[in-house]
Structure formats: C-alpha cells, structure tokens
Design brief:
2 domains; globular; Rossmann fold; alpha/beta; about 15% strand; about 375 residues; 12 strands
C-alpha cells in the first residue's frame, strides 16, 4: 500500500527528541516493514499548548498543505490510506480528514486519545472533531487499555484495535550486558511537569536506599536541568553521574553497564525507555502508575511499587541489588518479553493484518 503518514504533534523528522517523535519514527518503520510505501505527508505542527493558544498562521498553513497535497495526488494518484499518529485535544489533524473525504480513501488513527476533563477553549472544539473522526475512521489503533476504554466511552461505535507499545529492539537486544555492581541508570528528558515530578520522586527514594555502594547514571537534558540537579544535590560527590543527552549508541552503552533501570514514571503514557532498558537486559524499578504497567510486567521483568511510595521504591532497589540471582532472572525475562512481544517486526505484522480490512472503509 501507499500510506500517507502524519503526526500533528511532532513529525518523525522534528529536531527535538521525545517519546512522541520516537514512536512516530517507529510507526513509519513498522508500516514499511511489511512492504508498504510510506511517506510523511506533512511536517506541519498543530500543537496548542493551552486551551487559549492561538496559532495565527495555522489556518493559512493548513490550507496551503491541503492544496499542495491535493495537486500532488491529482498528478501522481492518491495514497491507499491516511495514517495519523496521536491526534488529541492539543494536536488535531486538520489536514488528513478533508483530503481523505475528497479522494475517498480510508483514514486510520494510532494513539488517538479523548479526555472529558479537557473540554476547554479550543481544546473542546478539537475534541468534538476528534470524536467525529474516530467514529468515521477505518480503524483506531490503541496502545493502552486506558486509551481504548476512553475512546470506547466517548465513541461507542468506533472501530478499535489494540496493539502494544513497541520499539526497534534489535540494537538493544544485540548489545552484551556487562552490569556493574550497584550501578543504576535512568534515561529521561528534563522537562517541567511529569518528568520533573519523576526526578523528584527518584531523588526522594534514593535517600532510603540502604546499599552502601549504589551510584546513579542520569542520561538526559532539558530546560529543567538546574532544578533536577538541585534535587540530587544532597548526595555525596560521585553518587550521581550526569551524562547529558546521548546518541542511541551512547544510551545502549550506559544501559549495558547498569544493574537496574530506575524511573518512577509519573504521567507516562507508557514509556519507550522502559522497553529499551528491558531489551538491553535490565530489570525495571518503577511505580505502578499511568501507563507503566503496559510495558513493565511486575514481578516478571521488573518491580512496580505504589505511587509516591519513596521507601517502597527504595526497598525494591535494595532487594534486587542484594539478590543477584533474582536480578538476573528478571533481566533475562525482560529481554525475552521485548523480543517476542514488543519488537518492531512482531507488531508490524499485527498492524499489517489489521490494515487489510481497513481498506474497505472510507472517511
């Protein structure tokens, strides 16, 4: 199939790294994996940070993009379907729906989400449009049970299908683990909100860790770096290693050297970093919160604690640092879990099977 791919929140070619950009890239790879011809239809970003956000040039840019694609498709033929990743109240798809209707092609969403609590300002209009879009879509791929339930509640007649969060696991699976004693690692951007809260929860938990020789490598950077550093300032020199933003090769190297991956996970939709860590052979220590249980199997590939339980998080860290046999058991199960259930080829086949019947529906 010829597939027009669009991610209104962040294009897969956006210069700023994030989980959204990574998943957009991986969806393009997964769609291509089974022989489809995938092109990024537009890089236009429709992100509305607040319900009162006004993007003054957005309307003209949308019209320009629609006209550009209309002319291109009339010359070369339209795609077989439009695939939109992560349309939601902050980032509506303003380009795909009119083109799909004009050319009579199926429309597909992945990770569309709806929240009744967000019916504010322009977000309310975006949510109304999203409900209509989800109702008409040939299929809506849901990565989490929470998203699936939310869409089903808002749009009972929507065509929904579950696929699991996944990664391109090959580079992580081929790395050879060489865990250093009591070395912890986390990989996360330093942003306001949930990320900063998770850093605060991690710093609070580490104060309760009994193991005398633990040290933490932090991979990540961002606008809240100064605030994050302040959270860990009470620890003795040498406990925290600040590595900044690293390439994927650098991340894999750090994961391979660690014994445990630690990250509370406040507000995580699911957290691709958890899957990367498990593929590299690391058990995960996190909170049983948000979408974390979608990617970490408690007691099998990691240990999940209650939300905001600093001492519980510390006890989980200590338990695996003191029990190498159990740590190794979880590490091996983690690699098997990702390779057999959450790797790109596995999910690519699932997506391909679900797209075939979708060709029967048009927007």
């Amino acid at each position: 199939m010829k597939i027009a791919f669009y991610a209104p929140l962040k294009s897969p070619e956006h210069p700023v790294p994030s989980g959204d950009r990574l998943m957009a890239k991986q969806l393009v790879a997964a769609l291509s994996e089974t022989g489809n011809q995938v092109s990024v239809a537009s890089h236009l970003r429709s992100f509305h940070r607040t319900p009162d956000t006004v993007l003054p040039d957005l309307e003209s840019q949308v019209a320009s993009e629609i006209e550009r694609l209309r002319q291109e498709w009339q010359r070369n033929g339209p795609p077989d379907l439009w695939f939109c990743y992560h349309p939601y109240y902050k980032a509506p798809d303003l380009i795909g729906p009119p083109l799909a209707r004009l050319f009579g092609i199926p429309y597909v969403t992945a990770e569309a989400s709806y929240s009744k609590r967000r019916n504010l300002g322009c977000w309310a209009r975006h949510q109304d449009a999203l409900k209509d879009l989800v109702a008409r879509a040939a299929v809506n791929f849901c990565f989490t049970e929470r998203d699936r339930a939310g869409l089903e509640s808002a749009v009972p007649d929507a065509r929904l299908a579950r696929i699991a969060p996944f990664i391109d696991a090959a580079p992580f699976l081929t790395a050879t683990p060489a865990p250093e004693k009591a070395r912890l690692v986390t990989v996360a951007m330093m942003r306001p909100g949930d990320k900063l809260q998770s850093y605060a929860a991690l710093a609070a938990a580490l104060k309760y860790v009994i193991a005398p020789d633990w040290h933490l490598a932090i991979v990540g950077d961002g606008p809240e770096r100064e605030a994050v550093e302040a959270l860990f300032s009470a620890f003795p020199a040498g406990r925290i290693e600040w590595l900044g933003e690293l390439s994927r090769t650098g991340v894999i190297e750090q994961l391979s050297r660690a014994s445990l991956f630690v990250w509370p996970g406040h507000g995580e939709a699911y957290g691709l970093a958890y899957l990367e860590a498990q593929a590299a052979g690391l058990p995960v220590i996190a909170e049983n919160i948000a979408g974390v249980p979608e990617v970490v199997l408690d007691g099998s590939t990691g240990l999940l604690t209650a939300s905001n339980d600093a001492s519980g998080l510390a006890q989980s860290i200590d338990s695996l640092l003191s029990d190498q046999q159990q740590r190794q058991k979880l590490a091996e199960a983690a690699r098997i879990f990702v390779s057999t259930e959450r790797s790109l080829p596995v999910v690519a086949r699932r997506i391909a099977d679900l797209l075939v019947p979708a060709l029967e529906f048009t927007l």
